[in-house]
Amino acid sequence: MSIFVPNKVYLRGILLHYFIQKKSAAEAHRILVQTYDDNALSDTACRDWFRRFKNNDFELEDKERSGAPKKFEDKELEQLLDEDPSQTLSELGKILQVDESTVSKRLIGLGMIQKQGHWVPYELKPRDVERRFGTCELLLQRQKRKGFLGYRLQLMRLSRALKEKRPLYAQRHDKVILLHDNARPQVAKPVKTYLETLKWEVLPHPLYSPDIAPSDFHLFRSMAHGLADRRFHSYEEAQKWIDSWIASKDMSFFRRGIHVLPERWEKVVSSDGQYFK
Fold first, then answer.
1. What is the three-class DSSP state of 177?
2. Distance set, CA 151 to CA 142, 176, 201, 251 (Å)
3. Are residues 84 and 203 part of one domain?
4. CA 76, 187, 210, 131 torsion: positive or negative?
5. What are the pLDDT digits (tens) for 39-60?
6. What whole-number distance in Å separates Cα of residue 214 and Cα of residue 68?
7. Cα 257 to Cα 248: distance, rounded to the nearest angstrom
8. CA gap 80, 111 in Å, rounded
9. pLDDT digit string (tens) for 118-143?
10. Which residue ranges traverse the bilayer (predicted)?
11. Around 139, how many Cα atoms within 13 Å sit in the side-chain half-sphere?
12. Residue-level pLDDT at 158
C-alpha cells in the first residue's frame, strides 16, 4: 500500500483553508505536523504564507524568479520584526527570500542589534529611553513601598487553577502580580479586559526591554542551552521536552529570575534609560 506524500502546493492549499477558518499560522503549523510529520511545511514557511494571504496574495504556485537578487523594502523587514522580534537571521532571510548576510547588513543599516534574543534599536529613541527610565523608577518605588514581588509564587497561574488549588484564593486581597511584555497578543483589548475581571495587578513594561523581562534574560536564556543541537519531530515531542525541562527546575530557579529584577531596574535608572552592560 502506497503512502501519500503531499507536495508543497497541496500543503499550501491546506494553509489557505485554515487561514479562511481564521486559525493562526502557529495552529495551522501544529496541525500539519500532527498530520504529515516530517512532510509538513516549516513554522517559518507557514507564517510566510499566512502573511501573503493577509496581503490578498492567494497564488499557491511558486513564482518564477529572475536572475537578479531579490530586493525588499526596509518596511518589510521592520514589519517582520514588529510581528516577532525574536526571529533569527535565517528565518528572516527565508521569508524575504534573501541570504542571511543581506538581512544582517540591512539590520545594521536600520540600527538594530540583538538583546536577549530580540532585535531592538541600537540607539533608543528619546521617548523609549524616557519610558524605560520612568517605568523602572516607578517599579523601584513600588518595591520599596509594597515589598518585593517575588514572594508571590503564583504569578503565571490562571485564575481557575488558583481557585482549584488554593481554596482561600478568592478571599485574599493581594492576589496575583503579573509581569509580561508588549507582545501583541498580551496587550490586545480582550486580554486587558479579561485581566481586569481577574483583578490582578499588571506591572508596566516598556518597549524594547527584554533585558528587564525574566522570561527573556533568565528563563529562555537557560532553556536555550538545553535546546542546543536538539531536534523535535512533532509538536507533542517538543511539548513533552519543555514540560520535563520546567519540571526539572526547582522553585529557587524561578525565584532567582524574579529576585534579580530590582537590580536590573536600578541599572536602567542608573543608565538614564539606556541599555546597560
1. strand
2. 14, 11, 14, 11
3. no
4. positive
5. 888 887 888 888 888 888 888 8
6. 44
7. 16
8. 15
9. 788 777 778 888 888 888 888 888 76
10. none
11. 31
12. 58
Structural domain total, the chain = 2
Compute the mean pLDDT over every residue in the chain, rounded to the nearest whole number.
Answer: 78
Element (H, E) at 255: helix 251-259
Please give the torsion angle defined by the CA atoms of residues 173, 177, 182 and 183, in that order, rounded to the nearest 10 degrees.
-100
Q: What is the CATH number of the domain that holds 186?
A: 3.30.420.10
Q: What is the pTM of this model?
A: 0.47
Contact 114, 217 (CB under 8 A): no
Which strand (E) or helix (H) includes residue 269? Answer: helix 261-270
Domain-embedded: residue 1? no
- Strand 177-178 relative to strand 201-202, pairing: parallel
Q: Domain range spanning residue 35?
A: 8-61+71-121
> Are 268 and 212 within 8 A, CB to CB?
yes
Interstrand relation of 112-115 and 118-121 (parallel, antiparallel or unpaired)? antiparallel
Secondary structure of 74-115 in HEC code, one letter for each residue? HHHHHHHHHHCCCCCHHHHHHHHCCCHHHHHHHHHHCCEEEE
Cα 68 to Cα 71: distance, rounded to the nearest angstrom: 9
DSSP class of residue 239? H
Distance CA 266, CA 47 (A): 38
